[in-house]
Amino acid sequence: MHVTSSVRTPLVTGGKTYADVTEDVSRQVEGRPTREWTIAFTISVIVLIYGTACVCWTWWEGLGVWGLNKTVGWAWDITNFVWWVGIGHAGTLISAILLLFRQKWRTAVNRAAEAMTIFAVLCAASFIVMHMGRPWMAYWALPLPNTFGSLWVNFKSPLVWDVFAISTYFTVSLVFWYMGLIPDLATIRDRARSKVSRYIYGALSLGWNGAAKTWARYEYMSLILAGLSTPLVLSVHTIVSMDFATSVIPGWHTTIFPPYFVAGAIFSGFAMVQNLMLIIRVVFRLEDYITVEHIESMNKIITLTGSIVGVAYLTEFFIAWYSGVEFETYAFINRATGPYWWAYWAMMTCNVISPQLFWIRSVRRSVVWTFVLSVIVNIGMWFERFVIIVTSLHRDYLPSSWAMFHPTLFDISDYIFSFGFFFTLFLLFAKFLPVVNMAEVKAIIKSSSEKLPVSVSGVAKGERVANPTFNKDAE
Amino acid sequence: MENTTKRYWKGVEELRNDSEFVKNANSEFANVNSEEDLLGKDPQRRDFLKAMGFGMAAVSLAACEAPVRKAIPYLNKPEFTFPSISDYYASTYAENGDYAPVLVETREGRPIKIEGNPASSITKGGTTARVQASVLSLYDIDKLKGPKRGETDVKWEVADREIINQLNTVAGRGGAIRIITGTIISPSTKAVVADFVAKYPTARHIQYDVNSVSGLIQANQISFGQAVVPSYRFDNAQTIVSIGADFLGTWVAPLDFALPYAQGRKVGATKKDMSRHYQFETIMSMTGSNADYRGTYKPSQEGLVVASLYNKVAAKLGGASIAGVTATEVQYLDKAAADLVASRGRALVVSGSNDPNVQIVVNALNSLLGSYGSTIDLGTPLNYRQGNDGQMNAFINEAKAGTVQAVMFFGANPVYDHPRGAELADALPKMALSLSFADRADETASLCKYITPAPHYLECWGDAEPKRGFYSITQPAITHIYKTRQFQTSLLTWAGRPNDFQAYLKNYWRTNLYSQASGAGSFDQFWIQTLNDGVFEPNKGATAASSASFNAGTLGVAGSAIAQRYRPTNNIELALYETVGVGTGALANNPWLQELPDPVTKACWDNYATISQKTAKEKGWEQGDMVSVSVDGKAAIEVPVLIQPGQADNTIGVAIGYGREKAGRSANTVGKNAYPFVSITNGYINLSAVNAKVEGASGRREIAQTQTHETVMGRRAVLQETTLAAYKKDKAAGSYRPKVETSEGPVTPTDITLWNGYGKPNHSWGMVIDLNSCIGCGTCIVGCNSENNIQVVGRDEVIMRREMHWMRIDRYYSSDGEEGDYKALEVASANPEVTHMPMLCQHCSNAPCETVCPVLATTHSTEGLNQMTYNRCIGTRYCANNCPYKVRRFNWFKYFDNDNFDYHFNNDLGKMVINPDVTVRSRGVIEKCSFCVQRIQEGKLTAKKERRRLLPDEVQVACAQACPTNAIVFGDMNNPESSISKVLATELESRAFHVLEEINVRPQISYLTKIRNKDEGPKQESVQESQA
Predict the structure, then answer these.
(1) Interface contact flag, A70 B890, Cβ < 8 Å
(2) Does residue A288 belong to any structural domain of this protein?
(3) Are residues B843 and B931 in contact, defined by beta-carbon separation less than 8 angstroms?
(4) pTM as predicted
(5) pLDDT digits (tens, 9 = 90+) for A110-150
(6) If exposure means fewest CB atoms within 10 Å of the residue's CB, which of A164, B28, B897, B920 is most exposed?
(7) What is the rounded distance in angstroms from the CA atom of residue A85 to the CA atom of residue A238?
(8) Is A110 within the bounds of a domain?
(9) How many domains is chain A partitioned into structurally?
(10) For residue A458, is it within any domain?
(11) Angle subtended by helix axes A195-204 and A158-191, to nearest 10
(12) Is B407 in contact with B431 (CB distance < 8 Å)?
């Protein structure tokens, strides 16, 4: 049966031609850094330098500079780790699962989302290393052949599973992202005026020639990598959640954790994508590619995953009561009413209540609302991890050990480090690599033979006339 | 003959006979480039690189010069000393009135651990925290390295000459010489002092104690004509009433009392009864925390409480009552009186008061109850406290008047710890000769003209007679570390006698004690046997002296004096107390004791004002708020508030022994000095003040506590307790055995498991901790610190909740909250029941820590041990998080060689205390209780060498060995002959329980239910709860 869908609203607005796409996306790669970019980059680098100094001091002096204690052995370190890993989920979800589901709208955002994934995973990895008492021994967590005799890693430990899950996820994401970049890198190579950029982008584009065979292989690889990544989207956070779920600590030992963590990760990841894309589309003038439709679609996913997370929170409470286990019951009552009640209610407000505002159409189509709520969601998801980790640990089985955790300057600074690291990398990416997948976006714009629904904007046309470029993409 | 020798040539040059070759043929080496040729006239690129390479290698080699560490081997190995094999010497700890016969473990000539001497019938191998910590004081870097005149170092010969001259001058003009010491329980030392006094007749020996029982001695003089402290037999008592006496913690001889007390309270298969302990006091003392019934009074009521109790008992028994005292109603006082009467002949009343009139009434009460001859033995007096307040007071008067011209201080620091210390400080510089034997320039010594430091007891010869007829010997376990000299040797030198104190001591024993030894053979045999045993107890097993006749005529006088003195006030009253750890302050520079949490408040590294919940509420003070405390217009001290459940309302408790100024790096500026508030009332030291001025002050100071949550939150899976009444009916009373619901019905949690379990084919090391015997003293903590090289982290890190103790004692207060009302359960009762629960690694058979470690740094042994491999640990702390008992400790910093942690691990002398069998952990790794695996290993190796199996109880862990009350039993659960197997055989079905049994981690440690000797039925019957 042949189905003809009704006329869809175009995914790319502004009547863009193939040439426009190339021009709009390549512009910031080829041009001089904009003022906004320079300011943002300077701030990021300053934050990174400050953060690096603090991280170095943490390593030099020992983890005692953090606020941890004998009862609360993890706090901001693992909170930040899980938070960043969670954020790292959106990229792969967008590029893999939405590819398999043939959600064409993803093409405008997948590049930046994948870049975000990779940088977020790097930030997460930095906390894995940072939280170790002896980070110079970090490689012992890898099953390397060694001279220590029969010493091997402990395959029962979820931390070892984490090592595998995250390194696999990082590798696949990196390959997927880089492979998607190749045609666009070739475009930039071909447009390059200076020898240096022609050499660099030429090297990076790995000899892409745009032949039909190459495109076919590209498509196959996309599908294969999408197929490989899809289980990883689920497995990474499932395994991260097992760090907690396989333990005996009330509030951690919960079978609901895997789906709950995956939903939470997508939730926070999409919120982070929203934050980044909303800025990019304004700064790089990509409003025609990243449209309100995109924002709305992603907001719908945020609402869905936020609601899943909300249901998970309530389920946990129900089970705590229903199980009749006094420690479990107390752990949850303590979350809501104990000394960290504010963290719990911050989490509930940010994660469960605030995304429900997206049921209102005008809110979910509003750039400002979306931006604000996305920030709130990410704050909420940070608190979710904090609540799970700290409020479960600080009052577990023996009341004699109950303690409070108070962050120190270094807890905060080492978290700030990850922001400096993330934004420095992301800004470098945004400047030197195409932030939108030109090749794939071209696949979804109306062909030039069709009548343009909207007239071409003056600026783009004028520029094109003044500065004609060879439309290599036509090949 | 044909020359058949073939000619071999070594090179083409030789074959060709080059002229160049011929020229050099006879030189040994080929013509290598000499130094100047290295770069030659015409340097090639390769030459340059060679030279540069050599230069760089040479420079970098020179830069990394290895530190020179001198390890000097034994050229002649001392006889009986084997590297890495411990030697044990019997000796005696007798400091500041505390006494313990000990075994000193030495390694290659340095003492590293103190154990109790099991040969002693007094302590039976028990120790106290102070005894355990004493080995660290040996290696105190703040000690003086030799004698001093003022600020300058002098040689002993010079000091001797000058001091003898001064003594002769003073004695010549008839000036008084005073030797001020703490209690001396050494008979030979007293003989030395007597010899000195014989040489200088104007000399007099004065003993004083800060924690004085001078009033008790005086009362016994008045009541019985014997100026002594009697022996108390807590094991014989059915009813114990203590009025302000912290007899398990600080009063007279806690080590002497603790074991009999615990024996009286032990229950088991064959003994279903235990003593009942009433405590009436102002602050919550450690002893009070062990009481079955506890009432509180204000210091101004103390005499009235005693008199009221007397009157109540007298009314029942028909004794003469004390007239004129206001009847004082204290909770449980009537009940105590009734129980005392009921257990007449097996009752014991003790009072911590230093007021002789109060003690006379106590004597009358004990006399009335027939305690003399059963629970009190006047025939075997205790020598632990001999201080005479009156004499000390008179001395200070003389000093002020200028009649004392020479004074010597030994084991005494009155400028710091005597109420009239300031007056003495003014008088000291006026004396012709003042000297101190202190090991450091302390508050008194720094004001003296000479300091002639005496060594630590582990460097000394000596003896002790803690009770009449019970002797023990002190022998050095190490040669003098610094140029110090024993007090006795110095006195003998100055008295012009042969100054070999060892010979003197031996001679003293030959003359005075050998005769008491029956069938000991020659004196040399006796002497060697005594040195070997450490103790000599001719009076052992002597029956208590029959009842003493109480001089009833003195009661009336005492009664009216009490009525005169004790008048209840509405003021906030101050009670000063001694802590179990730091004590009177003499040991304040010992970081182990500073970091030992107080058994009740769990605070360390500070003193503070304890106030009751009600008073705190009335005054609006919260924990940590600063208050200013002052008495009689003396300079106020500012201390933080600690809210103490069980304290009398409208009172404030402040610990003495803090605020040292010249004790050393660990003690100085720790806490505030409360000694100025000690008063002398009617000639006796009085540790309370009825007219304290306590005001809120600005600021806050956080108190370093190792435990901040006070109650057990109704968690019966953690703590199980019951009453004696319930226990008599049901031996499993109070036990909590949860069930888990399954499709096949409820099952015990241990029947469901994912794991296959570990086989324990050979040994299964385990522990049983009797909550009824544990008094919470913390000796095990210090014993463990000493054995396992546990780091001291200091006040700030304790506030961060990062103390490194492997062994801790959880202290829980009862709460009035109903089950499920968590907010109410968090609040301790106003006068709570207290439980002390030692907590250490439970060595779970299904250990949650083991499964989560990514690198297998913590693993299970085939003997039931949960092992920690420090050098495999990468420090993820996952194991610590996943430990349900929270016993794992993380090295947040490098705690050794770090100026931020300037304790004994930061100097070479202090590091001498390190046990070489135990790794010093570096930063970034987790550590925890190992069940003293080094001792297990040593025991197994010894047994293997001797081709036998380990004997039952051959291996002991440090905590069990140190425990004064035998609350901890350690051993091999696979060996049916071991003590632990025997305990478990009878208790497994009754009192034994595992903490958190329902999570099925299967600990190797069992606890025995705490039983309180209370009348009313248990709040909770033994239950079997089900949960899904």
Answers:
(1) yes
(2) yes
(3) yes
(4) 0.89
(5) 888 899 999 999 999 999 999 999 999 999 998 888 776 77
(6) B28
(7) 11
(8) yes
(9) 1
(10) no
(11) 140
(12) yes
